[in-house]
């Protein structure tokens, strides 16, 4: 895998240290995020049976799907600050065990109210995992490597849908086993790995390089010195814009708010498509298994391209256009869905849209962490992810409402077209403004 892609020109200690760090922590974090995302969006496949069984309309399903992000947003910043207080090992393990247990209870919802309640609890349980990991990666990787590292870590999202889609569809076929419906088995079986991985996380994850006994003393010293020097340095000739701010100031900081809006388009589309795409594909009259196989195609393509795009961003040391271009593609592809009502063009459009939502993630998070100082990173990253995920609530809920009102899935995607288009324009404008501000400093 060698995801750090360390150039031959760098010192040997840098190559050896970062490769060892990558292999020791990244595969486990990817696996954990894989399971997290499966548990977050498996309601999309369960809905193929569950909605009828417990009497959910499209609008009610959309509301329940979106309520996850309400509690997720409210608990995001406190969770990230708690990780800094209690340490990554304890807090990441706590998150994983809690969300696994809550996810299993989805098997026992009996109507809209219980569905809403468990989705709210699931959002609260999982809150802080993703921004916590993004913060955790800044403890280990210098700035120049973060675009590709974040992209490699986040490839777990499309892989979770690529592999999880046919698995979820197959589990639905266990319908009637031991008296449970297939959708109930889906929630139970896919929740168990989260609890197990939480226990493993407590045993194997170090809080930071200082506790990494698998690094040689000189490697630990090099990595700590490198990261300390970067935290004390400037970004692009300027001090990091959120440096030395209180939590409240970070939450109101214009860079944090701008990054949140930029992320809302990509995050909203990602969450919305992950939850609704199986029903969109199923609407063409396919079986559950056919739906699962076709649903995996866009995510398989995105899994490859997001890594390549993240590496391109690092190699060229460019973040703004690597963030803006996928957002523009996302807006255009979702808008194009209105022009077709056939299966093949719809799958091609979904491939473009899903790929865009994932290729943007590596460059965007690398850009965001460069905007934040070490002191502001915990609250800033959590706040960006929290506000950005409001797009997940808006997109998921409105798609259900619009589908009930019009009978059209493409019309339900229009709010995401607007949100991702605004994000594209904002990142270009903000990037140009910072470049112009940095020019006198370089001179």
UniProtKB/TrEMBL annotation:
Subcellular locations according to the entry: Membrane
Domain of life: Bacteria
Organism: Methylobacterium brachiatum
PANTHER family, alphabetized: PERMEASE-RELATED, TRANSPORTER, PUTATIVE (AFU_ORTHOLOGUE AFUA_6G08340)-RELATED
Keyword Transit peptide tagged: no
Membrane topology label: Multi-pass membrane protein
Transmembrane intervals: 21-38, 58-79, 91-110, 116-137, 149-171, 183-205, 255-276, 292-309, 329-356, 376-399, 411-430
UniProtKB keywords: Membrane, Transmembrane, Transmembrane helix, Transport
A family per Pfam: MFS_1
PROSITE patterns assigned to the protein according to its UniProt record, in alphabetical order: MFS
Principal location: membrane
Protein name: MFS transporter
Major facilitator superfamily (MFS) profile domain mapped to chain residues: 25-435
InterPro entries in alphabetical order: MFS, MFS_dom, MFS_trans_sf
